[in-house]
Amino acid sequence: MALKLGELLINEGLLTQEQLEEALKCQVIFGIKLGSSLIEMGFIDEGKLVKLLSKKLGVPAATRKELMEVTYTVYSLLPSSLAEKHRVIPFKLENKRLSIAMSDPTDFTAIDELAFVTGYIIQPFIAPDIRIAFALEKYYQIQRDMRYLRVSGGFKSAAAPKQGTLPDEGPTHDPIAVTYRKEDGELLNIEIPAEFEGFGSLPDLPEELVTQEEKLGRYTIDKLSFAFAAARERDEIADIFIKYLGQEFTTGALFIVRGNAAVGWRAVTGGELLSGFGELSLLLGKPSVMRDIVETRNFSMGALINTPENRQ
Length: 312
Description:
By secondary structure, the chain is an alpha+beta fold. The protein folds into two domains: about 5-150, 2-Layer Sandwich (GMP Synthetase, Chain A, domain 3); about 210-310, no CATH class. Helix content is about 40%, strand content about 15%. The protein is built from 14 helices and nine strands. The strands form three sheets. Strands 6, 7, 8 and 9 form a four-stranded antiparallel β-sheet that branches. A three-stranded mixed β-sheet has the order 1-2-3. It has a two-stranded antiparallel sheet with strand order 4-5.
């Protein structure tokens, strides 16, 4: 979409520069669209965003009710492969005109292909990508990404920021610089993403527990720093961290904290990656060691309390 969404929202007084920068960080880290990031972080109301984009782009907006009450005769007009390819939802048919919800209604290539395949005149409607993700799962069994797992019941909303004031965004999350000493004695500073805060100060295993065989295959700090420098996306960073954790500990795991849940990202035990760990989701509203860590931003050591969330 050629429209610069962030600048538009700032000009309309619906967003501050600080909120935009925070949402852009979320967009880069979690691979979601900016509009979805703003909604999920509570910086803008879903309805206000859609209404504004509808006005600026000159296309109607699909309501949440319309997307959640699509009949089989309508959504079956579009193959699931095509719906997934273009991330669109057909939701209304009137004569030869098929109404389709899209996050980018200016994608004319997609509109032309949809018209060719269905044989109908396509009327594009705008809708948030988050809402389309849920509709794709509901009607086509196209599983949502984990990034959308905890926003199905609605979205947080925030009042429009007042001119001259900054919103209370809580603690900032700047990258953390961790200092290591290389094998030749040189000090090395490594900057790691904020979601891994505390990793650099995790206690090492006692030296006597590390066998000579393990030492020979260790992921050294030099290699670690080069791997970080070469990483280009968040999943590569996670792979580097989990490999290092697998060397240092018998069992290790990485979580992404999103809203009211901690979602599994990577896990390793006995040197082997755990498959299916991404399906794990821990509610932070229930008693658990994860909730305590997130709330206090401190380490937790020792035996776990027997709670349903901890047993997972």
